[in-house]
Structure formats: C-alpha cells, structure tokens
Amino acid sequence: MNISIVSIGKLKEKYLKQGIDEYLKRLAPYAKIEIIELSDEKAPENLSDSEMVQVKQKEGERILSKIGQDVHVIALAINGKQRSSEELAKDLDSLATYGKSKVAFVIGGSLGLSDEVMKRANATLSFSKMTFPHQLMRLVLVEQIYRAFRINRGEPYHK
Q: What HAMAP family has UniProt attached to this entry (predicted)?
C-alpha cells in the first residue's frame, strides 16, 4: 500500500519530527509512506469570512495538485467520521483488498480544508471533536496507521 500524508504547514518541532520518524521506520515493512508538506497561506490573525475562504481555497489548490485521480482521499476534519482504531484498520484493509492501493490522508491548515478538498475526499476522519494543532495530528495519524497495520496482521501492540 502507498500512503501519502498531505499536510499544510511545515513541521518545526523537533520532538514531533522524532516521533513521526520513529513510526515511519516502524511502518517501512508494511507500506510506503510519503509525507508531503505544503506551505500554509500567510494571513493576518483577524480574517473576514471571505478572506478565510480565500486562504482555504489557496491551500486547497496546493493540496489537490498533489493528489492523483486514482488516489483514495481521506480528509481529516473535526466533523468527520469518528472511528475506533479497529475500524480504521478494517477500512485500510478493505481498501487494499479492493484495489485501492493509493491512499492520501489530508490535513488542512489552521482554518481547515476547502470545500473543493472536501468534495474530492472519498471519506472523512475525525480523531475527536476537540481541536488539535495540525502538526500534532500528523504524529497521531502516523501512529494510528502503524497501529492499523499491526491490528490487521494480528501482531501485538494495540491494547
């Protein structure tokens, strides 16, 4: 399986990079994982609604330019579908079984994802109704992908 994590924003925190690198190393026997970092749109703190839409659209264009037509897209969104680790594992296993070997998880910027990206998504995923920094979500996502492969292989780890 080829998995891309397309994310707005550069990861600066060393501790998050180290955690992600550890899980990428652990995932190597299971799947090819690519992390695509895209720059966030520079914007002032207090944006109007129309300015927020413009920022999300520009970031969305960058995201969509990195996703091929044959890719199954899972958008991380606060209002997305919440799944257990076992359900996510089952979803990934089903995708592989039915020939969807290219999967992209999309993490938006601080304002979320554009309507265009959400329309392109084949599924949504929410880890919580809480708001998390998108940099931290990248680490949580990579860990959950690793956990899913361990679950699917019946290997110890996920308890």
A: 23SrRNA_methyltr_H (MF_00658)
118 is in an annotated binding site: no
> What is 55-92 written as a DSSP string?
HHHHHHHHHHTT--TTPEEEEE-TTS-B--HHHHHHHH
Is 2-152 a domain of CATH 3.40.1280.10?
Answer: yes
The pLDDT of 47-74, averaged and rounded, is: 95
Sequence letter at residue 100: K
Q: 84: pLDDT confidence band, cut at 50, 70 and 90?
A: very high
Q: How many CB atoms lie within 10 A of CB 72?
A: 20
* Helix residue ranges per DSSP H, the chain: 14-27, 49-64, 85-97, 115-120, 134-152
Q: How far is CA 30 from CA 1, 99, 144, in A?
A: 8, 16, 13
Do the annotations mark residue 108 as ligand-binding? yes
Residue spans per domain, the chain: 2-152
pTM above 0.85, yes or no: yes
Q: Is 129 labelled as part of a ligand binding site?
A: yes
| Residue 47 labelled as part of a binding site | no
Q: Is 76 labeled as ligand-binding? A: yes
By percentage, how much of the chain surpasses pLDDT 70?
99
